[in-house]
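Quick note —
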Amino acid sequence: MEEETRLMLRMLSAVRLYFEKARAEMGGGIGAQPRQAPVLGVLARGGEMSQAEVARALNVTAATVAVSAARLEKLGYVARRVNEDNRRANVIGLTEAGKAEARRLSDLLDRVSREALRGLTAEERARMLRLCDVITGNLRAGERAGEEEETC
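Predicted structure written out below.
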């Protein structure tokens, strides 16, 4: 196995542990799950928006947001309505229960993040962020190159 592969697997292992810790602290399977926290966070900060806007803000697909929005709606955290400007699109926003859940998850993830990053200096954290941005950019460039190949 190449060094690059070992490095990426080690990073993924750390991320998996982070989400396992967050899920354990959430308790039970009741309420929003860690992967839905970013949707709640975007809506808490940005207010009502289309699922496509949420997807762009999170750099995920609209289908991914649709799945999370459906679960959050079932839990009573999100309400959907038809976009008055574009009747083919839905707008989603937080209910009062969703606002409370967004605050709860934000506090929980902040606590787990502090634990995960304990001992790292501000400089190390900034460097880690830059490295993640480079990795993300590399992978997105590969996606775009693959899309261009498919259309030729």
